[in-house]
Amino acid sequence: MSIKHLEWDSNFFKIKIGLLHSDKDIHLETENFDLIYVSGNYPVNLSSPFKNSFSNTKRVYQKQILNYTEVDSTNIKSFSKKHHSITQIQKIAYESGKYSRFKLDPNFSLDEFQRMYNQWIENSILKKNAKDLWVYEESEIIKGIISFDVDDNITKIGLLGVLPQFQGQGIGNKLLKSVENWCFSQKITELQIPTQSENKPACIFYDSKGYKSIFEQKISHYWKK
C-alpha cells in the first residue's frame, strides 16, 4: 500500500499532497508530503512529524427517480455569463461549502477555501465537472444554485446552496426537484448527493425528501508539523 500523489491538489495549494485509503491499521513512510488525506475508518501510524489536524465524515445520499413531480421552476434557469453575476454565484458556493473540510480545517486559509470554490464554479460553468449549473433567480437576485453531472447513468449533485437570508422558503427543494424531473426526462433513475454527516441541516433535508444514506467514510487531514 502506498500514498498516492494528488497532482491537482498539490498544484492548486502549492504544497505536496497525498491520498491514503486506509482499510487496516498500517505504518507508512511519508516521503516528502506536506499534507496527507486519509480516507477510511482504521487508524494509521504516519512517520513523524505528521499530526491529524482535522477529520469529518463524507456521506452520500441516493434516491430512485421513478416519477415526475410537479414543481414551480419558473425562476430556475441555466447559468449564463451574459445574464448572471458570477460574484453572486460565488457567494452561494461559499455558503454551500461551509461544512467543507477545506473550510473547517484551520490549516487552510479562507482565501484558499474561496479560491477552490471559485475554481469549482468556473469549471461548472465551462462544463468541465458538471453537465449544467442552474440558478434560482428572483427580482434579479440569484438566491440559490445547483450543479449536477452524469456518470455511468447516475446523476450526481455537485453544489447545492441557498443564500442564508432566503433559506426556509423552499428554494432548495425547487432546485432539487427540478433536477429530479430532469433525471426522469432523461430516463436516469438514480440521483446521488454528497455531503458531510456533520452537516445536520443538509442531512435532515435529504432525509425529508426521500433520500437514503448509502455510503459513509471518514476523511482525515494529516499535516506535517
Provide the fold topology.
Blueprint: E1 4-5, H1 7-13, E2 17-21, E3 26-28, E4 35-39, E5 44-46, E6 50-64, E7 76-78, H2 86-96, H3 101-104, H4 110-125, E8 132-138, E9 141-151, E10 154-162, H5 171-185, E11 190-196, H6 200-208, E12 212-224
Parallel strand pairs: 2-4, 3-5, 10-11
Antiparallel strand pairs: 1-2, 4-12, 6-11, 6-12, 7-8, 8-9, 9-10
Helix pairs in contact: 2-4
Summarize this entry quickly:
This protein is an alpha+beta fold. It contains six helices and twelve strands. It has helices spanning 7-13, 86-96, 101-104, 110-125, 171-185, 200-208, and strands spanning 4-5, 17-21, 26-28, 35-39, 44-46, 50-64, 76-78, 132-138, 141-151, 154-162, 190-196, 212-224.
What would your notes on this structure say?
This protein has 225 residues and is of the alpha+beta class. Helix content is 28%, strand content 37%. It has helices spanning 7-13, 86-96, 101-104, 110-125, 171-185, 200-208, and strands spanning 4-5, 17-21, 26-28, 35-39, 44-46, 50-64, 76-78, 132-138, 141-151, 154-162, 190-196, 212-224. The strands form two sheets. It has a ten-stranded mixed β-sheet with strand order 1-2-4-12-6-11-10-9-8-7. It has a two-stranded parallel sheet with strand order 3-5. Helix 2 crosses helix 4 (110-125). The longest helix is centred in the middle third of the chain and has 16 residues, at 110-125. The radius of gyration is 19 Å and the shape is globular.
